[in-house]
């Protein structure tokens, strides 16, 4: 006798695996039809096979839930013990300065954190590490990483290749950071399932982002309108981290940076936290600190 059943009111998309691997395996092994709709797994076929398939799927869901709880406890205990550390699947990341430690703590304590400082101070690196940590411990359901593609501007249509190829160079540093904290196959799977999104800032328009860890990188290159658009995308139970270097604005001289502007507009709003990093927080080669100081000296003369 042919029957149909549905499993669970909510099945996380990650349980399906890359390209719905779980559903394909269930179909092959039990000779049934398996599909995913409205966050439920639907099984259709011979009654005896359906019972066996349902048992197998429920075991997978239990195992995933146990693994996620274990991961959550492991990360939470590690970070409670030392808030200056961030635990990710590939490495343990530790703040290398007082400023960086304050930045990590601010992310935990505030809904919106705006980190301003020169290159090499860990603004993006630590922000992405924290986002991965939050995703692994189930504090958010997805990560959104975005940047303004300033140099592309209105000329994207004149560049060769598909849109994805055109904007990829502007987003590449975000992908690089992800690969530092997650295995390659997991990054690929999360990107495919939209658990992690990496997209130009323009793609954020019209969206509301709930249960998300959202990072706006290179924010000094947003206009006032773009910054307002981004900030108003924030939904319930989300974290927003904005990073930028106000000494490296690539906007036309007649356009005011949205990052510079929000220092004045949002300074008295809680719970928003501004974190300022400087050459003392540079975690790259020690020559980078000297280079930053040299340019700062030049700008003040």
Describe this structure in words.
By secondary structure, the chain is of the alpha/beta class. The protein has two domains: 2-72, 2-Layer Sandwich (Ribosomal Protein S8, Chain: A, domain 1); 82-300, 3-Layer(aba) Sandwich (Rossmann fold), CATH 3.40.50. It is built from nine helices and eleven strands. The protein has helices at 21-30, 47-81, 98-109, 123-136, 163-181, 184-192, 224-231, 258-265, 286-300, and strands at residues 2-7, 33-37, 40-46, 85-87, 92-94, 112-116, 142-147, 196-200, 212-216, 239-244, 272-276. It has a six-stranded parallel sheet with strand order 8-7-9-10-6-11. The longest helix has 35 residues, at 47-81. It starts with a strand and ends with a helix. Residues 152-163 have low confidence and may be disordered.
Short summary:
Helices cover 43% and strands 19% of the residues. With 301 residues, it is an alpha/beta fold.
**Fraction of residues in β-strands:** 15-25%
Q: Kindly report the name of the CATH homologous superfamily of the largest domain.
A: P-loop containing nucleotide triphosphate hydrolases
Number of domains: 2
Helix- and strand-based class? Answer: alpha/beta
Mean pLDDT: 82
Helix content: 40-55%
Biggest sheet, strands in spatial order? 8-7-9-10-6-11
Q: Remind me, CATH topology of the largest domain?
A: Rossmann fold
For the largest beta-sheet, the strand count, sense and barrel status come to: 6 strands, parallel
CATH arch. level architecture of the largest domain: 3-Layer(aba) Sandwich
Write the element-wise H/E pattern from the N-terminal end onward.
EHEEHEEHEHEHHEEHEHEH
For the termini, the CA-CA separation is 86 Å
Cα radius of gyration in angstroms: 22 Å
